[in-house]
Amino acid sequence: MGYYIETPEHKNKAVQICDAVKDAVIIPQPKSYKEIPEGKAIICVVDNGPFEAAAFCYNEREFEEFAEAISDTRPKKWVLMDRATAEKLSGYSR
Asked: What pLDDT is attached to residue 1?
């Protein structure tokens, strides 16, 4: 099951998240999940045409699903933010 961060608007979600969350920043796609610093989370904002989805990549498998570029060529932006905040905003539960 995926966990997503909702925003007021259906497009431009990466910027909306950065505007709403103090420490959130747009970064280039990490090469691996291991690049994500301790205490931080990575959000993949996927452009699905009429709307974007801001997916919380809560573990390595989830990250790899969204980082796959060969079969999934949709435009993506990556947001780095505090993990506790990402868990709260996405409703993630362990």
From this structure: 59
